[in-house]
Known about the structure:
By secondary structure, this protein is an alpha/beta fold. The chain has two domains: 1-30; 32-231, Carbonic anhydrase (Beta-carbonic Anhydrase, Chain A, 3-Layer(aba) Sandwich), CATH 3.40.1050.10. It has helices at 2-28, 34-50, 60-68, 86-89, 109-120, 136-147, 153-160, 175-196, 198-205, and strands at residues 74-78, 97-101, 126-132, 210-216, 223-225. Strands 2-1-3-4-5 form a five-stranded mixed beta sheet, sandwiched between helices. A hairpin with a 6-residue loop joins strand 4 and strand 5. The longest helix is centred in the first third of the chain and has 27 residues, at 2-28.
Amino acid sequence: xxxxxxxxxxxxxxxxxxxxxxxxxxxxxxxxxxxxxxxxxxxxxxxxxxxxxxxxxxxxxxxxxxxxxxxxxxxxxxxxxxxxxxxxxxxxxxxxxxxxxxxxxxxxxxxxxxxxxxxxxxxxxxxxxxxxxxxxxxxxxxxxxxxxxxxxxxxxxxxxxxxxxxxxxxxxxxxxxxxxxxxxxxxxxxxxxxxxxxxxxxxxxxxxxxxxxxxxxxxxxxxxxxxxxxxx
Length: 232
């Protein structure tokens, strides 16, 4: 029993030491470039897919550092859907992502203000608009646009922010294919609106910002980043 206990203690110590070293590396990071932040998101999603997510344990010292300031390496504008938490699917810890979530991942004045805060004050250089397959908000916007369906008043106001970005769809397409194309069109439309904003234009001219669109595949857990050329 003493030998077994000693082994368990050693394993626990080594595991904690590895986690501590990992968090030290994160805390020592300088501000990442957009490309470096993109690579980190890709690596995090790959860990999530493999079921090898990092330990969620945090040291008191790390929490104390986070209480002083935050330095996220990327900003994510995503949907409120409970199945699409960016911190989980990108295997990110506390303080690593600045996350804005709203149904349909729409760009409203409030969301635009949050994005501006992230870029101007938190200095994140990578912005990701994250849609997802089977989005209920996009589906409801399609129902309104194609079938004239009306929802409760405040939901309808939300949908009015989505419908301008919906594509022209062939009525021969299946409902699933229509939704899939609408989800991607919505992401691309939001990306364009961010890029074409005065703030976006200024930061791009300075070479300080990259905006990407992505789709989360709920059934697989994979994040599929859209080709930038498709977003123009």
